[in-house]
Specification:
Layout: E1 11-15, H1 20-31, E2 35-40, H2 43-55, E3 62-65, H3 71-85, E4 90-93, H4 109-134, E5 141-145, H5 158-177, E6 184-189, H6 196-201, H7 218-224, E7 234-236
Parallel strand pairs: 1-2, 1-4, 2-3, 4-5, 5-6, 6-7
Helix pairs in contact: 1-2, 3-4, 4-5
Length: 237
């Protein structure tokens, strides 16, 4: 399968790859023939992901067991990818945190900063570090995961909603800046999905009424393909 999939020969970096949507996307990419570079904090889960990719006939994954908010690690990853592959074809900025659901004035400065560090600043550092590698690809594709709350004023979702709104605007600006290149940068709104973050936000919800993460991976494959023409779009899964 690694030689026949839609992403054969492509190098794909996925953040938050140890669980939820990130894991499902990384596994699907592996099944589609991509060389997966999986970035997450949980060693055991990354190793399990690698095992599943191999069992599905994919290439052994490159595992990066680091904290994305240790921003220097992002720069080091970019340098390592250049040395090993000379390019990056696909970037998926998926890692995020919800924080707590509270009135805006009730957050601690640390909580607010932690949410923005992961949801916004880490993705900016990814763009900064990976843009030169995406430009080495014949069809660099970048996508970042957002939420519908970025576009509506929903009470008690302060830092998460504000950070996703900032992420969307940042990616749209980046997309405009690379419009004259082979890079396409887009935003994915996955909607309601059965994830740990969703359970944290809606503890009374029956998770079995929601689609599993692997049910929404088609859009991530579509946006990663060489033929994809969209740029600066917010795309629903």
């Amino acid at each position: 399968m690694s030689n026949a999939g839609k992403l054969a020969g492509r190098v794909a970096l996925v953040t938050g790859a140890s669980r939820g949507i990130g894991r499902a996307v990384a596994l699907r990419y592996g099944k589609e023939g991509a060389q997966v570079v999986a970035f997450a904090r949980t060693t055991g889960a990354l190793e399990e992901l690698d095992d599943e990719i191999r069992k599905a006939g994919g290439l052994p994954a490159v595992l990066i067991n680091e904290n994305l908010t240790d921003f220097d690690k992002i720069d080091q990853t970019g340098a390592a990818l250049f040395q090993r592959f000379g390019k990056l074809d696909i970037l998926v900025g998926n890692a995020a945190m919800l924080g707590q659901l509270s009135p805006v004035g009730h957050y601690t400065p640390k909580m607010w900063t932690d949410v923005f560090n992961l949801n916004v600043h880490a993705n900016w550092r990814l763009i900064r570090a990976m843009d030169p590698l995406l430009r080495q690809s014949d069809a660099g594709r970048a996508m970042f995961v957002t939420s519908g709350v970025a576009r509506r004023a929903q009470m008690y979702w302060g830092p998460y909603a504000a950070s996703k709104a900032a992420l969307e605007q940042m990616v749209k600006i980046y997309a405009a800046e690379v419009a004259h290149t082979q890079i396409k940068a887009n935003i994915v709104d996955p909607g309601r999905v059965r994830t740990k973050m969703r359970a944290q936000a809606f503890p009374g919800e029956d998770p079995m009424t929601l689609p599993a993460p692997d049910a929404i991976t088609d859009i991530f494959v579509d946006l990663a393909t060489v033929s994809e023409a969209r740029n600066g779009a917010v795309v629903s899964a």
